[in-house]
Design a protein that fits this description.
- The structure holds 2 protein chains of 2 kinds.
- Chain A is an alpha+beta fold.
- Helices cover 27% and strands 21% of the residues of chain A.
- Among the domains of chain A are: 12-198, Beta-grasp domain (Ubiquitin-like (UB roll)); 386-498, Enolase-like, domain 1, CATH 3.30.390.50.
- Chain A has 17 helices and 21 strands.
- In chain A, helix 3 crosses helix 5 and helix 15 packs antiparallel against helix 16 (471-487).
- In chain A, 58% of the residues are buried.
- The model of chain B is unreliable at 780-789 and 822-845 (pLDDT under 50).
- Chain B has 4 domains: 22-29 and 461-598, Aldehyde Oxidoreductase, domain 4 (2-Layer Sandwich); 33-133 and 181-274, Aldehyde oxidase/xanthine dehydrogenase, molybdopterin binding domain (Aldehyde Oxidoreductase, domain 4, 2-Layer Sandwich); 153-179 and 277-450 and 605-786, 2-Layer Sandwich (Aldehyde Oxidoreductase, domain 4), CATH 3.30.365.10; 813-842, no CATH class.
- Chain B is built from 22 helices and 30 strands.
- In chain B, strand 10, helix 6 (208-219) and strand 11 (226-230) form a beta-alpha-beta unit.
- Chain B is globular.
- Classes of the chains: A alpha+beta, B alpha+beta.
- The complex binds flavin-adenine dinucleotide (FAD) and FE2/S2 (inorganic) cluster (2 copies).
């Protein structure tokens, strides 16, 4: 964190400043690599806290005004510790301080305070921001509640509150029950509430930004051609989308970008196109946006999203970033491999399309050239009939996979006509389980086939021992996964609960 | 009934009020130590240089390259220390080490204009190391007898005779992991040199007085030259009891050397790699039961993994030994304890302070043996409860043993235990791939510091002329609601509404010589002191009011901000008016309060006495569902009845119970401290050193249905307003989760399968446990000796390791001081360090 004494040379470039809690603020003088959290705290807005600096705890959560279609706004909670302050140029931010004050508490703050939702209080401002985002969600509607307490949907409140909205916030003190009760006790916003009223107008557009500071440069171009030209000029530039991986690099590994190129708001990377043969997903849409825009259209992705990180992270994280990082334990690649997706790479030379199965070449290595960025992901249609995403992790909400297995299987007249299985966490790159697919295809979809194929799957890849899981467990999980798919086929809620 | 515990009608204590800082918390206005930085001018930032070896000598330290980094102002090394280069109370924790004792040990600290510059400066410092052999696991240490500190021995009766009487004898061993505190706020200190060279340190510390003492001894100053303030902490859990001192000392040293405020704040990775954690333990045991499953004898040796220095390991171990009985009567007992010295962070206090580790051993024994005895685990536990007239192995009579029975029966009823047990059985018959388990476990936990001297506290209460009240006490606030309770106590004693009372931050220049806010004792001790101060003021005001109302002062009542005669509320004097009148009559309107817990005595060399004021009791029943494909599980329902005496503040107490339970469940099921035990260059490195790899319970671990009730009619005589401590005991209610998982895993095997379950019981661990149960099904005849299991039945059992002839008993110098053995103690003190008095040694034991 910088202090007032961290007197960098005056920043050059163009920033318009941003609005924090309704007040305009300048970004002049910032470091190019400074995080939004450090920037806020240096300004004396110390409500947002640092609990981990890697997107895991949510103590740093703040609200940003993001587009909800063309003419509405959605208050979106993000991890301030991960995003560069410069990336918020031109945006509107609300922190816990801006939601309410001790004498005029916001409804989320009131419910948290009176129900014992805070003990030490350190996680609280972040929880309040995540909760407020869900409070203002326009499509939150009251749900039916089962009379039997045990059989209720424990992840939705009677007021329609989705508990997953809080999945990226950790609390070490309360045990969560009072926080859940606070969330489930919320009413709906008064239309005169200024933040509710703000939803009815368009979100601030992205702002072309250029920061040149002693620690590096930050650029936000306005269009794809501009971005590609900059990338051609600085092939070593770091592309920054949701910054959910890049922010961790900066904070935990101390990496600094000489050139950072923000691409998360490029309009060309933010569309969903569906025709008869393909679904094309813009690489810079956040996973939350894709989730909403697809609305279950791709069941395998619908099964994946709730298991991917947390709501806070999904509000930033993009598919382009997930593939761009190329982690062997990333969750999108196994699913996209099973869907036989391809990647559209763009550069000043134009677009090229590469099947995802050919994309990864080694540990965090790919066929993408410097000067190229991922513009879109294409998923061919029609989709398979049986799909599932099995994520093996220590914790159910917000954990990294030790093994991930994605299935897209077609069964016609009791016979497996096509099987595509993507694996994560079992090799240096995400993999297709080719041998297992072969052991299934053309065979009857029955217990005998499944057991034989499960034995093949168990031997796929070369899993390692690490702190997440032993190699033996990883192999065992490969071995049981297909049996589980067979025993509990189309029951995504269940798979989610058990994975 | 004592006046201390006597609760007036309509008292403010007992009201379910929100946390006193709740409105500040939720609006982001509550200030924590590091929030003060942006309000302070000219701050320097500190960053450590961490050693990349588990054990090594520092052969060369070259700080000059750091000075080439723009913004670097100074590098602090051992040469800069004017006083004692030590951060502990045992004189085994050099602040700037010449011998690296764990991977990540800080060898020096860089101060710079910005954190960024300090970080870059730290990476520029050149350090040469000579690596030395290291011990990373507790079993490594046991193998070469690397022990440190005392080896306490607790014995009652004759275990051999007890085992002779037994129908069943089992022996086993069990190694279980520690736990990272993961308070959301990492360690931080902000130090500056105030007027007249007074050192002022803002520190997030549970033990401001000890932070003050250590800062003073590092700087070579007297205690009165150092002031420590703690506004509040973002969680403590014991992790800020001993650990903050060194960081405060670094900041203070930097401030004295540069004349500028110095801020030190650990990143999460720093905090996880540099600060102590809950001790993992290794236990070997043999146990005897009679034909009905009644415990006859227990012989156990517990080895705590202490890490590189003693820290609080001795008292943690003592408490573990004192809690191995949990709620069970065991006639013949022998327990030995030792502390392994390993090249890891120095393990320290953590909610429960050894108690959970001791209790985990007996709960594990019962959970493993129940199927082998053919007795339902719930029945086995219930059958062995203490009854009236029995005493613990260390000789303390167990008062109110009926409370655990009451709580147990209440949980059985409210959780519908019998019907749900049948449902679970039916579910398990109907489902091949998933199984449920429902378990119920008790908690009995001793309240007071084991070390008698710590059971004292002070408070300062001011009544201003306008009637407003400001209180100050020696306890610190870390989210446990202590300040809320103290405000309620003061309002109750003074008979004023809650808003009349305000609380000032904890500072060593207000209340001196405080004990750590620890051992769950914060409200008992400080509440006693606050009440005592308020009582003094009330006694004085009583005379004034009696005169004004023309009644006997003894008949004056203070209620709701009004003062009137008993039975005559019509003639009232408003509180503020009375106060004003008292001022003009020159009546002292402030008081220093003091409290000491009566009736305690303890001889730690014999491990005998009555160290606890009372026991806290609780019972929990938990139902889980386990997926047979993966070992993943969900907590379906939890029912708890817990004894907090007559609650001072029910919202706070319920919060402590729920939060403690979930934290305990985290320790036992999810939180996985993994050190690199390989022989590569990162040997000894903590592999799970971040939130991304060390997983805390999140919303997904919250019990889906969670019922918590306070035990009724539980007035505790002799404690402030009839209440009981609540901070630590509920953590151990989480044994019910672990036992439910064990039962669910067992259900994958044939009836009577005894399951060994690793701790933490991660999904992977549960998977291996249920695979073990399935395997038992395929060779049922061997199920008393499951392959790979360390549980053995028969004979006289396998005798656990006994202490060596050179083992010395726990006998803290402070205890000898208290007993008037000053000469002896002074001599011993001189051996440790001539410059230190007994006060500093007191800190080492609790
Ligand atoms: C707390 C937490 C939990 C997480 N949990 C999961 C999880 O459950 N599963 C999972 O798979 N991942 C997880 N991640 C990782 C991360 O969220 C994902 O990889 C995410 O998809 C990255 O997207 P982003 O937009 O934030 O990428 P960024 O951080 O912006 O970028 C990541 C990398 O990709 C490059 N990049 C970004 N966009 C493009 C593009 N269009 N073309 C080419 N290169 C590009 C960047 O240059 C950078 O190197 C988690 C991360 C955090 C912090
Ligand atoms: S600080 Fe933990 S998520 Fe940002
Ligand atoms: S209240 Fe302390 S971490 Fe949530």
């Amino acid at each position: 964190m910088t202090s007032q004494l961290d007197r960098p040379a005056p920043t050059e470039g163009s920033t318009g400043g941003l609005i924090v809690n309704g007040a305009p603020c300048t970004l002049l003088g910032i470091r190019a690599n400074a995080t939004a959290l450090d920037w806020l705290r240096d300004r004396g807005l110390t409500g947002a806290k640092e609990g981990c600096a890697e997107g895991e705890c949510g103590a740093c959560a703040v609200l940003v005004a993001r587009p909800d279609g063309d003419d509405r706004t959605r208050w979106t909670a993000i991890n301030a510790c991960l995003v560069p302050a410069a990336s918020l140029d031109g945006q509107e931010i609300v922190t816990a301080e801006g939601l309410g004050s001790p004498t005029a508490l916001h409804p989320t703050q009131y419910e948290m305070a009176v129900r014992g939702g805070s003990q030490c209080g350190y996680c609280t401002p972040g929880f309040v921001c995540s909760m407020a985002a869900e409070y203002y969600r326009a499509d939150r509607v009251a749900a039916e509640i089962a009379p039997d307490e045990q059989e209720r949907d424990h992840e939705h409140g009677p007021n329609g509150f989705d508990l997953h909205a809080l999945s990226g916030n950790l609390c070490r003190c309360t045990g969560y029950r009072p926080i859940r009760d606070a969330a489930y006790a919320l009413g709906h916003p008064d239309p005169a509430d200024p933040l509710a009223e703000r939803l009815t107008r368009p979100a601030p557009p992205p702002q072309r930004t250029h920061v040149a500071a002693p620690d590096g440069e930050f650029n936000r171009p306005a269009t794809l051609p501009e971005a590609l030209a900059l990338l051609a000029e600085h092939p070593d530039a770091v592309l920054v989308a949701g910054s959910t991986d890049w922010g961790v690099e900066v904070n935990i590994r101390g990496t600094r970008a000489a050139h950072a190129l923000a691409i998360d708001r490029l309009p060309e990377l933010r569309t969903v196109e569906v025709d008869d043969t393909v679904i094309e997903l813009g690489a810079a849409l956040s996973l939350s946006e894709i989730e909403r825009l697809l609305a279950g259209r791709v069941p395998l992705l619908a099964a994946l999203f709730p298991q991917f990180a947390s709501r806070l992270i999904r509000n930033g994280a993009t598919l382009g970033g997930n593939l761009g990082t190329g982690s062997p334990i990333g969750d999108a690649p196994p699913a996209l491999l099973a869907l036989e997706a391809s990647v559209v790479l763009a550069s000043v030379a134009g677009d090229r399309e590469v099947p995802l199965a050919d994309y990864f070449t080694g540990y965090r290595q790919s066929v993408r050239h410097p000067g190229e960025l991922i513009r879109a992901i294409r998923i061919p249609l029609p989709l398979a009939g049986i799909t599932a995403f099995h994520k093996i992790a220590k914790r159910r909400f917000d954990d990294i996979s030790s093994v991930a297995i994605a299935y897209a299987v077609d069964v016609t007249d009791g016979v497996v006509t096509r099987a595509r299985i993507g694996l994560g966490g079992v090799a240096a790159t995400p993999l297709r389980a080719i041998a297992t697919e072969a052991a299934l295809e053309g065979r009857p979809w029955d217990r005998a086939t499944v057991q034989e194929a499960a034995a093949v799957l168990r031997r796929e890849g070369t899993p390692l021992d690490d702190h997440r899981a032993s190699a033996a467990y990883r192999s065992a999980m490969l071995g049981t996964s297909l049996l589980k798919l067979y025993a509990q086929p189309a029951d995504p809620g269940r798979q989610e609960a058990d994975a | 009934m004592s006046t201390l515990s006597d609760r007036p009608r309509n008292s403010v204590v007992g009201e379910a009020v929100p946390h006193e800082s709740a409105a500040l918390h939720v609006t982001g206005r509550a200030l924590y130590t590091d929030d003060l930085v942006s309000r302070t001018r000219d701050v320097l930032h500190a960053f450590p240089v961490q050693a990349p070896h588990a054990h090594a000598l520092v052969t060369r330290l070259d700080v000059t390259p750091a000075h080439a980094v723009p913004g670097v102002v100074r590098v602090l090394t051992a040469d800069d220390v004017p006083g004692v280069n030590d951060a502990g109370v045992k004189h085994d924790e050099p602040l700037f080490p010449s011998e690296v004792m764990f991977y990540g040990h800080a060898v020096c600290w860089v101060l710079a204009e910005s954190l960024e510059a300090a970080r870059l400066g730290a990476s520029a410092v050149v350090v040469d190391y000579e690596p030395l052999p290291s011990l990373v696991t507790v079993t490594d240490a046991i193998a070469v007898a690397s022990f440190q500190g005392a080896q306490p021995h607790l014995e009652r009766g004759d275990v051999e005779a007890g085992l002779d009487r037994s129908t069943h004898v089992f022996s086993g061993d069990f190694e279980f992991a520690g736990q990272e505190h993961f308070y959301l706020e990492t360690h931080a200190a902000l130090a500056l040199v105030d007027e007249n060279e007074q050192i002022f340190v803002q520190s997030r510390t549970q033990h401001p007085s000890e932070t003050q003492e250590i800062v003073a001894h590092v700087l070579g100053l007297a205690s009165h030259e150092v002031t420590v303030q703690c506004l509040r902490m973002g969680g403590g859990f014991g992790g800020k009891e001993m650990q903050p001192h060194g960081f405060a000392a670094i900041a203070a040293l930097g401030a004295t050397l540069t004349g500028r405020p110095v801020r030190l704040r650990l990143t999460r990775n720093h905090d996880m790699t540099m600060t102590g954690k809950r001790h993992g333990f290794h236990a070997t045991w043999r146990v005897g039961f009679d034909g009905d499953g009644r415990l006859q004898a227990l012989d156990a040796t517990l080895t705590a993994d202490g890490g590189w220095s003693l820290d609080l390991s001795e008292p943690v171990l003592a408490r573990a030994l004192c809690h191995i009985d949990n709620a069970y009567w065991i006639p013949d007992v022998r327990v030995n304890g030792r502390i392994a010295r390993t090249h890891k962070t120095s393990q320290t206090a953590f909610r429960g302070f050894g108690g959970p580790q001791g209790m985990l051993v007996i709960e594990d024994v019962l959970g493993r043996c129940a199927p082998l005895l053919g007795i339902a685990a719930a029945d086995l536990r219930r059958r062995n409860f203490y009854s009236a007239g029995q005493a613990t192995p260390y000789g303390q009579p167990v008062r109110h043993p009926e409370r655990v029975v009451t709580a147990w029966d209440q949980v059985l009823t409210t959780s519908d235990f019998a019907a749900r047990t049948a449902e679970v059985t039916a579910f398990n018959l109907a489902h091949e791939d998933s199984k449920r388990g429902l378990a119920i476990t008790p908690v009995k936990f001793g309240i007071s510091f084991n070390l008698t001297a710590f059971n004292q506290a002070g408070a300062l209460v001011h009544v201003y002329k306008d009637g407003s009240v400001l209180i100050n006490h020696g306890g610190t606030e870390m989210g446990q609601g202590l300040h809320t309770k103290m405000l309620q106590v003061a309002a109750t004693t003074l008979g004023v509404p809650l808003p009349t009372v305000r609380l000032a931050p904890t500072r060593t220049d207000k209340v001196p010589n405080t004990s750590a806010t620890a051992a769950s004792s914060g409200a008992d001790l400080n509440g006693g002191a606050v009440k005592n101060a308020c009582d003094q003021i009330i006694e004085r005001l009583r005379t004034v009011a009696g005169g004004r109302l023309g009644i006997n002062p003894a008949d004056v009542r203070f209620e709701g901000g009004q003062v009137h005669g008993v039975g005559d509320p019509s003639a009232c004097i408003p509180w503020a008016e009375l106060v004003r009148q008292a001022y003009f009559q020159r009546v002292q309107l402030w008081a220093a309060g003091y409290y000491r817990t009566e009736g305690l005595h303890w001889d730690s060399s014999l491990m005998q006495g009555e160290p606890f004021k009372y026991f806290s009791y609780g019972v929990a029943a938990t139902e889980v569902e386990v997926d047979g494909f993966t070992g993943a599980y969900r907590t379906r329902r939890v029912d708890i009845v817990h004894d907090v005496g007559e609650s001072l503040s029910p919202l706070v107490d319920i919060g402590q119970i729920e939060g403690g339970f979930v934290q305990g469940a985290g320790w036992l099921t999810l939180e996985d401290l993994r050190w690199d035990t390989g022989d590569g260059p990162t040997r000894g490195r903590l592999a799970t050193q971040a939130a991304s790899t060390y997983k805390l319970p999140s919303f997904s671990e919250m019990p889906e249905v969670f019922h918590v009730s306070l035990l009724q009619d539980a007035h505790e005589d002799g404690v402030v307003y009839g209440s009981k401590a609540v901070g630590e005991p509920p953590l151990m209610l989480a044994f019910s989760v672990r036992e439910a998982l064990r039962q669910a895993a067992a259900a994958f095997g044939p009836p009577g399968t005894s399951v060994d379950l690793a701790s933490p019981a991660t999904p992977e661990a549960v998977y291996w446990a249920l695979e073990g149960a399935r395997a038992a099904g395929t060779k049922a005849e061997h199920r008393h000796l499951v392959e790979g299991s360390h549980l053995v039945e028969g004979g006289h059992g396998i005798v656990p390791a006994q202490p060596g002839p050179d083992a010395h008993a726990l006998h803290p110098i402070s205890e000898r001081w208290a007993n008037g053995e000053a000469a002896d103690a002074g001599a011993a003190g001189a051996v440790d360090d001539e410059s230190t008095g007994p006060g500093e040694h007191v800190g080492a034991h609790r």
